[in-house]
From TrEMBL:
Biological source species: Pseudodonghicola xiamenensis
Upper classification of the organism: Bacteria, Pseudomonadati, Pseudomonadota, Alphaproteobacteria, Rhodobacterales
Protein name stated in the entry: Pirin family protein
Gene Ontology MF annotations: metal ion binding
Metal-binding in keyword set: yes
Membership in a protein family: Belongs to the pirin family.
Cofactor(s) essential for the protein: Fe cation
Keyword Transmembrane: no
Amino acid sequence: MSLRPILETRRAIPAMEGAGVKLHRVFGFQDPTELDPFLMMDDFRNERPEDYIRGFPWHPHRGIETITYVLSGTVEHGDSLGNTGTLGGGDVQWMTAGSGILHQEMPKGNAQGQMHGFQLWGNLPSSQKMTAPRYQDVKGSDIPEVIDDDGTRVKVITGEFWGKRGPVDGIAADPQYLDIAMPAGVKKTFRIDTYRRAFAYVFDGAAAFADASQPSGVLLEKEVAGQEVNIRDLSGNRTLIRFGSGDEVTVQAGPDGVRFLLISGAPINEPVAWHGPIVMNTQQELMQAMRDLRNGSFIKPQH
């Protein structure tokens, strides 16, 4: 067994998308090989409805999958195929855009006006970029949760972990998407298949992610049970941890515990031609997608 070294830690940066939604970009629109097969991830966490209520009106997608995971509040969605629905707290929507879809997402807060969730973009290989679009809408109650003796809780959204399999299937990147909560001071090692690219995203509490040589993280300030920990500013500093090759990740929870996403997937290793919500392999394919949008043939008939 070998610990995955930490290649980089960095904070998500403020951004604005849609019709004026304030969010934090965890990664994306830089080097698409960095976390291949994943292209982008946003953390949309807001306390004020005016920062998110205008939402994400109609926009196109082609060549990718979008994974929306809602923690609090709701997201009403609809598409050009006539699908509509509402995602609530704990729900997941895994949308395979494939050959093309027009989509909208309109967030609403909970009773206190709070809204929190994530959207992750996964690339599709060339053989599946023009596949028929499809949805997998998953209720939070259908997502298995494993609770270990030390109080660690793991929600298995997709992939297999600790004997449980997530309800989302048939995804090209064969991803593993875990939502992990660890109590204060707990130290844990998580297995990840060597062939996968992997990252963690801390969104609550604090933790140190052990490197091959020593505990590591951002803002090392205190000690818990003799281990350095990553003390996060709980006002909202968000931290991405990008791992190198190996098959284990060791985590030491901070004084208030930690909650983070641990996500991995098989690299596609193909050229990327990217413009906004459309991701193809070549500039010619990208230009064709733009022409399809202009002439009304972007949406392919479904059989």
